[in-house]
Design brief:
This protein is mainly α. The protein contains 16 helices and two strands. Strands 1-2 form a two-stranded antiparallel sheet. It is rod-shaped.
């Protein structure tokens, strides 16, 4: 081993460094330069009289990393207990463990986790590893049981991802109906829902179907009602069903105002809608008495909310 920097060449000569010498030696022996460097380092850190012939060169090389000469020389002569063989001896795994390195291959779950963490320091690599292992149901179940991990996953989700998660959870129609009923009680959710043409049309269609079903029930259960299916009778039954729906809906909504004082704007909006309801009821009464269903311009504007 030469001093740091190696020998100095004579004037006009090319420097002949250590790496050149080692490369020539490696080529002669059919070895790689890195292997020869490992041999050289281990040999330098442990003189011949301090070597143990019963211990592999790999163990000598691993323990060569101990900086203190005296500690390094004493360590090689005091092998640890190999739990598997129940004898005291040096193995590469025990040597790595002694100097704080991970055994190759890792032996315990903690060592395996540490071995994975090293290449997963890169965020892109870590993301790919997480994606792969979370496809395994048992792994995903353990992850969601960890509050911190679950919170971070939820926090990182975009609106699209959250929507997909909700869709997965509400594949059952009964569950979906209950969730929709719950969230539509929130004004900001309801306002967004009615802004969606498809959703609004679906709700309107469902209301019509429900009214028709209620009318059918009324027709079957009410004595004296003509069961003919002509257009006039069907309109009558639909009207009865709509009345049932009106009474049921407001029977649930009005009690919710208990103990609440409406603001001026809220009272104005409510008064406008109550007026529309009254005008509609008057229109129904007139149509029932006279058979006339036409409405004047003023009533039409009122019903439109103008």
């Amino acid at each position: 081993m030469q001093p740091v920097g190696g020998a100095h060449p004579a004037p006009g000569e090319e420097p002949f460094g250590v790496d050149v010498s080692l490369q020539i030696y490696a080529d002669d022996r059919g070895l790689s330069l890195s292997t020869v460097r490992c041999y050289r380092f281990a040999a330098h850190r442990r003189p011949e009289e301090e070597r143990r012939h019963a211990v592999s060169h790999k163990v000598h090389y691993i323990l060569a990393g101990i900086p203190d000469d005296q500690v390094r020389f004493e360590t090689i002569g005091a092998p640890p207990l190999d739990e598997r063989a129940r004898v005291r001896r040096w193995t590469t795994g025990l040597a790595k463990k002694h100097v704080g390195q991970l055994p190759d291959p890792p032996e315990t779950p903690a060592q395996m986790v540490a071995a994975i963490h090293r290449p997963a320091d890169d965020d892109e690599v870590a993301a790919q590893v997480a994606t792969d292992v979370l496809r395994r149901p048992a792994v995903a179940a353990n992850v969601v049981a960890d509050d911190t991990a679950r919170h971070m996953v939820n926090k990182a989700q975009t609106t699209q991802h959250k929507t997909e998660v909700v869709h997965d959870l509400i594949e059952d129609d009964a569950v979906a109906a209950q969730v929709a009923s719950d969230v539509l009680r929130r004004p900001e959710v309801a306002s967004r829902e009615v802004a969606d043409d498809t959703a609004r049309h679906a709700v309107n269609r469902a209301q019509t179907d429900r009214s028709r079903q209620q009318a059918d029930v009324f027709r079957r259960e009410t004595p004296g009602v003509d069961r003919s299916e002509d257009r006039a009778e069907q309109g009558f039954l639909d009207l009865i069903g709509a009345c049932h729906h009106f009474v049921a809906a407001y029977g649930k909504a009005v009690p919710q105002l208990r103990g609440r004082t409406l603001s001026g704007d809220e009272q104005a909006v409510l008064a406008q809608n109550v007026a529309r309801c009254r005008a509609t009821l008057d229109w129904i009464g007139t149509a029932a008495e006279t058979g006339e269903v036409d409405i004047d311009d003023e009533l039409a504007r009122l019903l439109r909310g103008e």
